[in-house]
Amino acid sequence: MKVIYPVLFFEEKENGYSVFVPDLNNASTCGSTLEEAMTMSEDLIAGIILDEMEEGNKIPNPSKIEEVSFDKLEKEIDIENWDYISKFKTYIAVDITSFAEKWGKELIKKTVNIPKWINVKAESLKINFSKTLEEALLEKIYKE
Q1: What is the pTM of this model?
Q2: Is residue 44 domain-shared with residue 87, that is, in the same domain?
Q3: Are 29 and 40 in contact (CB under 8 A)?
Q4: pLDDT in tens, 39-87
Q5: How far apart are CA 104 and CA 51, in angstroms?
Q6: Sign of CA dihedral 34, 36, 40, 43
Q7: Domains held by the chain: number
């Protein structure tokens, strides 16, 4: 699965680039070089999209690049006297599938035993067993 979002780049006066993705709540990142900033924007987009997918949320639709505005962004983030050399916008395409594979999102099947009454009640409440087990394991892992 590929996603493509318009991204705003600002070349900073003190070297490097600041990057914003308006369609993803103005999520931002940066890089010392243009190449690094583009790579960081790919990682940012992929991370946000994967999180949305895991939470069962709708993936935000991308805007057309001509609809994305530097002025709107600068007003929304409320930065006065921002000192940058240049700015440009471009599309960034991200292969979500390869990103998930790269970062180990592979699912492992486990068989568990639970009392029948718990199964009946959980199914009637439409509880997602996999997600519930994952959340409980993460809480146990990071609590200790």
Answers
A1: 0.69
A2: yes
A3: yes
A4: 999 999 999 998 888 787 888 999 999 999 988 888 888 776 777 899 9
A5: 14
A6: positive
A7: 2
- Say how far residue 108 (Cα) sits from the centre of its chain: 23
CA distance 33 to 45: 18
CB 63 within 8 A of CB 55: no
Supply the range of the domain harboring residue 141.
107-144
Give the Å distances, CA to CA, from 69 to 20, 63, 91, 136, 140. 11, 11, 14, 42, 44
Same domain, 90 and 20: yes
Q: In this structure, which amino acid lies at residue 101?
A: E
C-alpha span between 118 and 121 (Å, rounded):
5
